[in-house]
Amino acid sequence: MAEERSRRVFLSTTAALSAAALTGVPAGAEEPDVRGPGERLSPQRPDAELRAILREIDEHRIEATVRRLAGFGTRHTLSSQTDPVRGIGAARDWIFAELTKSAERSGGRMTVELQSYLQQPAPPRIPVATTITNVVATLRGATTPERVYVVSGHYDSRCSDPVDATKDAPGADDDASGVAVAMELARVLATRRPAATIVFAAVAGEEQGLFGARHMATLYKAAGTNVQAMFTNDIVGSSKADDGTRDPRTIRLFAEGVPTSETPAQADIRRAVGGENDSPSRQLARFVRSVAENDATGMTVRVIYRRDRYLRGGDHIPFLEQGYPAARFTEPHEDYAHQHQDVRVENGKRFGDLPEFCDFPFIARVARVNAATVWSLATAPGTPEDVRIRTNQLTNDTDLVWRRGSDPDLAGYEVVWRETTADDWTHAIKVGDRTEAKVDLSKDNVFFGVRAVGKNGRRGPVAFPTPLS
């Protein structure tokens, strides 16, 4: 009787659905010895349209972008904003012109803006009032434009002294590589019609304290923008470690656990019911792995369960501060002789962040990971909202409720679940186009989530439920 009960899934409060009790996990993960309702989860394979997009990504264009940005000498935030050939102003104008060329191919759906503000002195790294300008290209969604996904890199650079604005700071890896990824995606996707809005951004002020990204995130929050995901590409230019070894088929993705923006009330709930490994950013990381690890990208996404590296930070953090799901792509192993260093030779060793130390085929593969991710997000339904788990009665089953999304291409929902010790979701239960489900598994024993399914078969990110008494 107990085994039969574990195989039944109840939809709403009355209808019953029998489901095969299949075990299994996504490829590459350790398979837990569990049984329960639903179907085994598998990665979302790229369709013909996505494969065509990924084939268009051009490593030679990416290389040309990195070399052009490095050619401005320095892109330090405090460098000249008026010199036509050297400094951050010249780089800003070139990026704007290139993104405008991409926008011209969009039939009016992509717009490009210079997002500027005057940053007041913030010693030690901003000693004087300085204009900081982000270059932002926005591809408006065709059916749900209010849903926004952001992919960015920072175009400012630095040398050994963080306030030296005159010495050469080519910044090829850190972070012309990330800007090249965002610009290449803008070029390739400009002619497409995603359902949701995609933003391609080159931000400034990162090396001085994440100023450009913080301004951008603050503007979005003040406007009530529904940013459902943000990715920064920061130091994605090389597959070579400082010991000479290479890992050309792996990209790291840093995703925080306990949310940066968590309130004391939210912390009380988390401590009571769990969820330390189920932040919106962790769900985003799981989604990336499900859509971007395949033969079309040629990459493995190594998810790192922390917000960023030791002693470092990136442009995803200001978005996390505003409560937006965000994560950071970074190369698998860093060579610190080629970032934040004066260009020089010491004891026969070359220092400096120069294009010759970049791996351009690797950057192109990172761009494909980004493209697979943002295109899959922007063509699937959004993350379900107001997902709750009923806790007003002591029962050995689980009631979930959520709010129906407004996506016109929404087909329905799936309840997903996993053992509390499992790294990723293992099972999915189809529940159709409804807003509640009863599952014959104890909410005390496993973790649940809900994700939306589009008419095109694409699944969106999972939403983790909060208690509803």
Automatic annotation (TrEMBL):
The keyword Acyltransferase does not apply. The keyword Hydrolase applies. Residues 383-469 form the Fibronectin type-III domain. Pfam families: Peptidase_M28. Transmembrane segments: none annotated. It is found in: Secreted. Keywords: Carbohydrate metabolism, Glycosidase, Hydrolase, Metalloprotease, Polysaccharide degradation, Protease, Secreted. Gene3D superfamilies: Zn peptidases. Residues 22-46 are annotated as: Disordered. This is Zn-dependent M28 family amino/carboxypeptidase.
